[in-house]
Structures are given as C-alpha cells and as structure tokens.
C-alpha cells in the first residue's frame, strides 16, 4: 500500500519529507500516486480550502482521510 501523510505543509512518502502547497497546481506525477492520503490539521491553515481538498482527492486512488481541529473556523471558510 502506498500512503502519503500531510502534517503542517510537508508530506512524507518513501521515507522522504517534501514541501507541497496543497492549494496550488498539483504536480502531474502526484495524480493518483497514492492508495491513501492522510491529511492532519493542515486545511484550516490553507487559504483556498476547496482547491486543497480537490488536490488531496486527486492524489489518491482510493481513500482520503482528513483531520480538522479548528472546525468552526474551517466551516466558515467553505
């Protein structure tokens, strides 16, 4: 299983951490690259939440898990 984990503004896969601005254009090599995309407390810090969520979904072949701590502020921005 190929899994990517987002925490803060970095993501880690294959044992390497990388920086990705999730609300900007997605790199073509990341589309459908992972079986599972796990995002932990990042979206509430992103200006364009919808674009970021679309990108998280585009990276996954199967499952996207999102954890949002500041849910009140997050919902107001949708």
Fold and architecture overview:
- It is a single chain.
- The protein has 2 helices and 5 strands, in the order E-E-E-E-H-E-H.
- It is α/β, with parallel strands linked by helices and 78 residues long.
- Strands 3-2-1-4-5 form a 5-stranded mixed β-sheet.
- Strand 2 and strand 3 (16-19) form a beta hairpin.
- It is globular and about 35 Å long.
Calculate the mean pLDDT score and round it: 77
Strand order of the largest sheet: 3-2-1-4-5
| Rg measurement, Å | 12 Å
Query: Distance N terminus to C terminus?
Result: 32 Å
Sheet with the most strands? 5 strands, mixed
Give the uncertain stretches in residue-range form.
none
- Which H/E pattern describes the elements? EEEEHEH
Shape: globular
Strand fraction:
35-45%
Please identify the oligomeric state: single chain
Helix content: 10-25%
How many beta-strand segments? 5
SS-derived structural category: alpha/beta
* Alpha plus pi helix count: 2
